[in-house]
Amino acid sequence: METYMGQIPGWACGLAKEDAPNQLQKRQLNDLRMKYTAKLLLHSENENKRQVTKSVRKFLDLGGERIHELYETGHKRIQERMILYVD
Description:
Layout: H1 24-42, H2 49-60, H3 64-85
């Protein structure tokens, strides 16, 4: 994707400013990333759509408490890797 660095008068993208309270823009961008990823994975042209759908159903069948545990352990692993590999 290309980046445009010019000016467009009166153009509003609908996102909060970067310095918005409670990291609003960051949450908005994360929501957009999740929507975009879901569209890609579940698109009819995706050759792996059936497998993705099957995996999601299996994951959801685990139940709320187990899903929460998996999110927590996944989040901790990401933080550990960030410490190791990112400045």
